[in-house]
């Protein structure tokens, strides 16, 4: 799921973005505070995190603008704690409100609840890798647009490890440890072969390569 973050405090925006990325969300921080609507149109998010105090126009204004073209859920994140502001936020089309400072775990819980309500998206059962491409961590099944992508046990283990550590790089040594838990003979060449097969199968299914290489370190989900 893609989340657009409209927060002009660069430190807080970076902290929220890093946290959500580790939980498998694709985050996009707004850059043009004089034209948030243009950023929104380019991002095409599934959810918007909206601050109220912003340069040029406030969050209430941009919420109204977004509501004219989209019903995407909007979650306000603001230091304003007056009930009038909360009422105004909802009146302008917002779906929920979190007061600053807040715990990141609370923010994630709010986001997951809103996504479940809006998209019937099972956050704990599926991890969205790319639009239409989901991985089920428990069953290790990869699905593209409702159809399972056939993978070997080794390919499933590698993908599970990569998605678990996303967006961090997983070393070749760690991935070989995963393969040692299968019945296959494992060598450095075996890992290269498994990664190559996995890439080919996923690209054939969705047209994209989801496994990136960090030279001299390992692999990661792009």
From TrEMBL:
Claim: Transmembrane helix is one of the keywords in the record: no
Domain (Response regulatory) ranges: 2-115
Keywords, ordered alphabetically: DNA-binding, Phosphoprotein, Transcription, Transcription regulation
Sites bearing 4-aspartylphosphate, chain numbering: 51
DNA-binding segment(s): 124-222
GO biological process terms, semicolon-separated: regulation of DNA-templated transcription
Superkingdom of the organism of origin: Bacteria
SUPFAM superfamilies with a match to the protein in the record: C-terminal effector domain of the bipartite response regulators, CheY-like
Annotated Gene Ontology cellular component terms: cytosol; protein-DNA complex
All residue ranges annotated as the OmpR/PhoB-type domain in the record: 124-222
Keyword DNA-binding belongs to the record: yes
Protein's UniProt name: Stage 0 sporulation protein A homolog
Phylogenetic placement of the source organism: Bacteria, Bacillati, Bacillota, Clostridia, Lachnospirales
């Amino acid at each position: 799921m893609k989340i657009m973050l409209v927060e002009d405090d660069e430190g807080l925006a970076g902290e929220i973005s890093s946290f959500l990325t580790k939980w498998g969300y694709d985050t996009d921080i707004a850059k043009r505070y004089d034209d948030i609507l243009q950023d929104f149109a380019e991002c095409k998010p599934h959810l918007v995190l909206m601050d109220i105090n912003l340069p040029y126009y406030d969050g209430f204004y941009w919420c109204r603008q977004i509501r004219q073209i989209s019903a995407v859920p909007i979650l306000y994140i603001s230091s304003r704690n007056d009930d009038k502001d909360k009422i105004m936020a909802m009146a302008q089309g917002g779906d929920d409100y979190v007061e600053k400072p807040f715990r990141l775990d609370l923010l994630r819980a709010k986001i997951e609840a809103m996504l479940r309500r809006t998209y019937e998206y099972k956050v704990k059962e599926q991890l969205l890798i790319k639009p239409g491409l989901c991985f089920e961590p428990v069953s290790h099944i990869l699905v593209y647009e409702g159809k399972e992508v056939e993978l070997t046990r080794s390919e499933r283990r590698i993908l599970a490890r990569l998605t678990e550590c996303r967006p961090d790089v997983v070393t070749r040594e760690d991935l070989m440890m995963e393969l040692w838990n299968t019945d296959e003979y494992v060598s450095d060449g075996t890992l290269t072969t498994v990664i190559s097969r996995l890439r080919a199968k996923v690209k054939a299914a969705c047209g994209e390569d989801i496994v990136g290489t960090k030279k001299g370190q390992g692999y990661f989900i792009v």
